[in-house]
Amino acid sequence: MTPDFPNLSFTLFCLLNTGFVLLVSPFYMSLIKKVKAAAQGRKGPRLLQNYYDLRKLLHREVVYSPTSSGVMRVTPYLNLAVLLLASLFVPVIFIPDAPAGIGNIIVFIYLLAIERFFTALCGLDAGSTFGGMGSSRAMSLSAVIEPTMVISFAALAYVLKTVDLHEMFAITSASAIPVSPTLVLVSISLFIIIIVETGRLPVDNPATHLELTMINEAMILEQSGKNLALIELTHSVKQTLLMAVLINILVPVGLSGGPNMGDLAVSGLLVSGLAFLVKAALLAVVIGLFESSLSKMRLFRLPVFYMMAFFFSALTILMEVFA
Amino acid sequence: MSEPLLVSGLSLLLLGTVLSLLYRSRTCRTGSLGLTCLSSCLLVVFAGEVLYGGREVLIESYSFLSPLEFNFLIDRLSAGFVLLISLVSLGVSLYSIKYVEDDKSEGRKSLHVALMNLFIFSMLLVVLSANGFSFLLFWELMSISSLFLVIYEYEKPESRKAALFYFIMTSLSTVFLFSAFIGLYSRTGSFDFRGFGLLDPKAVSGIFLALFFGFAIKAGAVPFHKWLPYAHPASPSNISALMSGVMLKVAIYGLLRFLLAVEPELWWGVLVLVFGSVSALLGVVYALKENDIKRMLAYSSIENVGLILIGIGLYLIFRVSGLAGLAGLSLAAAGFHCLNHALFKSLLFMAAGSVVHETGTRNLEEMGGLVKRMPRTALLFLIGAVSIAALPPTNGFVSELMLFQAFFSSSALAGANAPFLKVLLVISLSALALTSALAATLFVKVFGITFLAQPRTECAKQAGEVPKIMLLGQAIPAALCILTGLFSSRLFALFGFPVEVEVPDMLFVGGILTGAYLLVWLSVRNFGPSSGPRVSEETWGCGILAQHPTMEYSSAGFSEPLVLIFKKIYRTQLSSSRTFADSRECVFEHGTAEIRLMKFFDEYLYLPVAQAVDRVSMEVSRLQNGRLDTYVLYVFLAVLVLMIFTRWFA
After folding, report:
1. Which of B516, B547, B558 sits opposite A67 (nearest CB)?
2. Does one domain contain both B357 and B488?
3. Which structural domain, as residue segments, surrounds residue B635?
4. Would B172 be classed as within a structural domain?
5. Are residues B452 and A121, on separate chains, in Cβ contact within 8 Å?
6. Do residue B488 and residue B583 come from a single domain?
7. Within the 204-243 window of chain A, which residues sit less than 8 Å (CB to CB) from chain B?
């Protein structure tokens, strides 16, 4: 199955899917903040606050430290480009006739690794203690979560018998209920992965003001102006993509198209777009509530938390093996 | 001789050796290295043509007695490794033209070049050998020429220790190989490798074990890995690049040559997979704690050998289970990773060599800020780091991707052993994932601490860029890292590796990535204030007035979280005893504090063996009293025993 490239379905997909993800991502950042504020009895930011922030930052000048090098200047662009590429791997509104390899789950994991690698280098670039601390912690924690992430995706590959995200979604969206009960187990791991990868409580506190407790925020402490806007946008796109993976595995209702459905109706796209908006909003609320109900864990207690996620995904594979 | 390219390539190498031995001048050394480059180019063309055409040639060149003959076989496997050796030696010989001139003594410089050429020559002939005799002969030549290169700086005690360690380990490896080849001879009556296929199933397992341990020692698989972190830092960097990039692969070649010829059993695959996973994980975990840049790279080689062994293990398991497609994928992954590791590790060793040459230290804590002083070396090192950290679309990613795909498809395993195998593969997959993420962390640390931020010491501050020819030598493997990554699927198709499981096309991924980068850049280019000078402001330091390198994160600090998480593996023991002052007499007694690094393999494997050998040799040495009559007695007794023995048993 190697459709000729460029075909219409895939070109359309590149524009629509990526544009859609870019457009809605900042919204969920604000929404989670809003939910957390509500849980704490505060009013919280406006729902569109992140868009205003991005616009403001985009018009600000970039300030570089004289210590910093080209790494600092290239990374914001590179990271957003990587995440744009990654967005092709996760169909949000419809499943296109993608060229072979676009959708490969391992490539997706490693695209996220590029983002992490260069963000961590940025943290070291300016020579600040906080940046170095952030890089060290972020890389260490991401190394420890990696087996969980790979085993979770391997569990998906085991259950759905494919390593392609597009095909996985096509299989899950073909039935209304989850294809296999074990997928529910993997979903728990995927949820924990979202929490870890997007730097949320109890792993990292995105709202902290104390540098010593920061992980992700410490790495980007030296970023400013439009570079910071790009980094923030990258971060929110990453969150949306990971959320989309979980949603499309667990409740794929509304995702239209499939490798065989060539004719795409505008109404169908609207429905699936809306469906994703609602589902992702619900998930964002859950994430917000989850964050509000926990306090930050000590750094060296975190591997225990990761073991839990690892356990659920390994259990899935074992159940498939011995079923 | 029917292979003009091969023969001329090999003769040029020998000519280069002789040239630099005879005339000790700079011109001759440069000429000799030029010949190495030329010969590498010829051999690359030769190997590429054999790989593409897929022909097999057996060259019978010389024979002493009937089993002791020099036979050479050119097939796709040996051509692949000839390609690997020549690609690396092309870059390394260019790099060495300036690098070897660093020494004071003319004689030593010439010897360096001569030994290097001999080393490359012997490695080439090892992979071309068609029988055990010529294999072992050139294997020993390879070991000995590299041994002299390890001991190149013989004034330093650490070099002498490294060389001794290396010598013992490589001899041990040869002992295993000897017994394997003698086993082959006793069963088939010839040393010819084609005899592997004729072995009966009972004998073949014993020979497999002997060969596996022999090659595992040479390749540096855990627990036989200890010689690597000694030998690589001790030798000059161009030699480290060759040893780590190429010589370890020669051992892998030997293993593959055997495994492809015989009918394997399932437990072999399990054994190789377990060894591979343990080597990969422990290699990178130990590397994380290293502050010596070359030792760190040596540990990282252990990790990569582990990855290759994982690929071979998977190949054996899938082949025995009858899954030809997945077996082919795993074998291709292992083979491709051999090439990839040769490319990026030689690049990293050369770049590290430039850094060590410029700063005069191997300690990461004394570096920093080199990206401003050595921008091109920094870029080349970054390419190597990105490849070894397996980030798409580089070649390092492609081979890991193929390994992951083989693992992910293991649900296809069926049969009585399937549940056990699947659980084993899940454990091994977790180890692989952890290894790969730790490698990324490791190279963020190494690049960040070495090249970014401010220089931590004076010597780092005074570093400068290395000469262009050294950069060119590194640029070749760097370019190949990217190109073989981008064109991986096309290369597989071109050289006719039927990979049934589809591997994503990195050219497409790389193309979209470049497009997306341009898109992002173009769309935000016009934002922000357009006029006015670029603003530059000191790094924010919580209120300190000026930035100081002591405020930067250190190498040890960077890996501290992981060192704490994996403290069970390192088994660092802190012990302290304190004696408080007597309040009346104000006597302070000395306290002691100790940080003890548990060297697991040293204490539980190497030392007991060494002590046992010591005890035995003490006993044996009593036999030698230096008196002629005793020796005559020994000879007489030996003859007597032999006569009785032959009378009774023959």
Report:
1. B547
2. yes
3. 572-649
4. no
5. yes
6. no
7. 211, 221-222, 225-226, 229-230
